[in-house]
Amino acid sequence: MKSNRPLIWIFLLPTLVVLIPALLFGLASVQVLKEKMTQNHAVQSADMAALLQAANYTQSLGELHQGVVDMLQQADRGELSALASYRLHSSFVNELATLGGQIQTLTETPLMIDLNHGSAQHLREAFEGYRRFIIMAGDIATVDATRARHYLDEAQHEFLRFSMLTGHLSSKLAQRSGERTSDAYQDTLGHFNTLLLFGGAILALMLVAAFYSARILNRHLLIIAEGLLALSHPHREVPELPRVQRLAELGRGQLQQLALAVLRLRESEARRLVAERKAHQLAHFDGLTELPNWRMMSEHLAHSLMLCQRNGQHGALIYLDLDLFQQINDSYGHRTGDRLLREVAQRLRTFQQEGCMVGRLGGWAAGRR
């Protein structure tokens, strides 16, 4: 079971070629979109904070102006003492300083900077003019309450002018915030489309790579299968299997091991065929003269008799014996006797015709049919 695990990875390779890059690209795309959406959320949050700050500033300014108007009206009616007027005036000065800080913070927000129409400078200048007028009106009302009515009308006029500028600026800020939100959405959509297009291109490339990987793997497996099929067919000679040999030399990993296993099977089959030939040679041929032995001769003789009986033909069996062969062995040795037997066998083969068989029956006797 353990040796099969690498083969599983080989078969999964075309799928993994597509799946792993697709997963990595998907994770990277999600991360990019997440960062982009985080940036857009931060921008929108900053814009909403700027709009809320502008609204709070307008409300605080309205409350301050209402307090100034009440002070001037009370001073005009003679209802405020000099000390009370001074205390209210000091309170208004402190609130104006706080509003001035809010104005500075508002003009430094990204939304106000992005507006870039000189609105921040106009807002600061208008507030500074309004602040100077309020301080001056408070100072004069504290010193001379009879002139409070004149500054009451002027205060309404300054507040109206400043309120119109603030409202116009708030409208521009809201409009610009909407444009920035729309731009952020379009930018995110553009990133998404780019990632989608790029992902489609990568997926197409990965599919092509997977196709070629599968094609190469299939070709190698077919080479191995063809080699096994060639070895499984009945044959007298072992097939060469050059493609399997080349795969064993150039391949790697489990495919190379499979090719080597097929070559080892081929070598085993070659040894089996050699062993079968040797066994057949030993069983049916004489080891010295290489002529058919008595067993093969008897089988051939039985077959010939059957054919003659079936076809109404006649055959002949010639039995030869070498005279004085034992004396040759005794006088010149068995090696010389063996050479004589091989020479006689070779000469008898020259008389062999089609349908005839020359064999050695044993000892120094030979038969010819």
From TrEMBL:
Any Pfam family hit: GGDEF
Transmembrane intervals: 195-214
Species of origin: Billgrantia tianxiuensis
Full protein name: Sensor domain-containing diguanylate cyclase
Matches recorded under InterPro entries: DGC-Regulatory_Protein, GGDEF_dom, Nucleotide_cyclase, Rev_trsase/Diguanyl_cyclase
Record has Ligase as a keyword: no
Phylogenetic classification of the source organism: Bacteria, Pseudomonadati, Pseudomonadota, Gammaproteobacteria, Oceanospirillales
SMART domains found in the cross-reference section: GGDEF
Keyword annotations of the record: Membrane, Transmembrane, Transmembrane helix
Domain (GGDEF): residue spans on this chain: 313-369
Listed SUPFAM superfamilies: Nucleotide cyclase
